[in-house]
Each structure stands twice: as C-alpha cells, then as structure tokens.
Amino acid sequence: MTPGPAVTETDIKLPVFAKGKVRDTYELPRDRLLMVATDRLSAFDHVLPNGIPDRGKVLTQLSIFWFSQTHEFQENHLISGMVPDLPAELRNRISDLVGRFMIVRRAKRIDIECVVRGYLAGSAWAEYKESGTLAGEKLPAGLAESQKLPQPIFSPATKEDTGHDENITFKQMKRRVGAKLADELKERSLALYAFAAEVAQRRGLILADTKFEFGTIGDRVILIDEVLTPDSSRYWDPAGYQVGISPPSYDKQFVRDWLSRSGWDKKSKPPELPQDVVAQTRDRYLTAYQRIVGKPLFPPKGRNE
User: Which pTM was predicted?
Assistant: First the structure.
C-alpha cells in the first residue's frame, strides 16, 4: 500500500485534555476521552519536522489488540476504536481519524512508569555495568548485554510530563505511592509481561522489556495509555539476537541512529528525515504489527487472506 502523507496535527474542535509528543487527547462527555495517535515522531526530546506515515495507526491498533488480549485479567480504559462510536460532530473527519483513535474512560493517572525487563538492555544494561544492580537490586555477576535475566524484573521510573523519566528503586516507589499500591502495580505489571512475552514468543519475537501505565477509577486500578507497542516495548527478532550486542528492534532506533550520524547537535532544531529513512522506519512499524498480530495492518486488496 502506498502511504499517504503523515498526519502530524489533528486540529479537532473539542476541548483539549492534553497534547503530547505523539498523541492529542480531547475531552468527551460522561468522563470519556478521545485519544488520537498522530504520526509525529520524537527523538532525543525533540519532535521531528516530518512524521512517519501510518505510525499512529500502528500504535493505536496494536494497543487495541493487546487491550483485547489482556482484558480478562487486567481491566483497561478502552471503550471503543470503532468509527460508529465517534461523536456526530467528527463524522466529517473519519478519513483523518480512522484507525488512529481510541475512546477511553477517563482515569486518574498514577505517575509511575511500570517497567518490566526480561533481558539486560538499554538503561538496565548501563546501570548493571556501573553498579551491578538493576533498579537498585543486586544482580548476579558476569551478565552480558542483552542476556536473558534469571527472571523478569520490575524496575519502575517516575512519569514526567517534561524532561526524562527517572529510574527509581522499588523502595522509592513505595514512598511515592504507598506500599500497597506499589505491590499491586508490580504484580499486575509482571503478569502482563509474562502473558505478552509468551504471545510474542509464539509469534517468533522476543519481548525484551516493556512499560505500562496505570490509572484509577474509584478504587479500581486500570491499564491506560498505550500498551505493548514498539514505542513502549523492545521487540527483537530471534534471528538477530545475540548475547553481548544490542540487537535491532522494531522501533524508532533506526531514526535515532540516523540522527546520531547526521551531525545534528541534539540541541538545535532537528533536521528533516530523508524519505528513505521515513520509508524504512514505516516498514519497521508495519512489520512489528504484522509479526505480533499475525496479519498485515493493510491487507492486499483483491485477495482472500
């Protein structure tokens, strides 16, 4: 399928609840929100001048897939991603919104990133190299980059609206949200990771790590935001996996690598991405969707799949 232009602005005539680097969220009646995933792409704390066509659809449809897969044991905020459920005043925007919106229940966000790591990668590897720990807890000596951990580890981080999220220990998390809620979030996160890692393995993928966000409605803890997408998770192809190196993943690392090679100082206005980088990044997102769900996001026309 030939991609259309990237959707980088939504400009919906509804009260704005929040505008993030990727998503625009609007208020709806009856304690509901309309979350719209644009094709904007951020890297090194900058939103890039041009987006990745259909990226927002991949993030939305993968989230809907995983919400439906996990709802039996973990309540979430999803109400609908179906066009007939859009407010009447947005029916003239269907072509802009189809595939990239979720109507969700409004919840009170818990300001903790609930990260679960099954492999020693990214900032976890950096911490281990420096101190032999992960999330402040001692790990066995002699582990290598990308090595599978003896068991998945919960490693929380602060949830910041601006700047970088900060890794914290579980004890620090308990002081922030209380011991009871911290224990519950840890248990829920580990259960979600275990389920998703098994599904990913059946699809021929390694789920190295992921992060979850939770909120509350009354006294109920529910899963919110996006879930188990290439932006919130590190998926590896076993064919490229090797202990001791950082395997390629199905996310925007390809863009980060290009930006690092481009000579950009990561402080000034970022450069526009070349079309070949845009196309290859789009292909990575679409491939992630197909590998995880088991079918393409855009089935070939005129065929019985």
Answer: 0.93
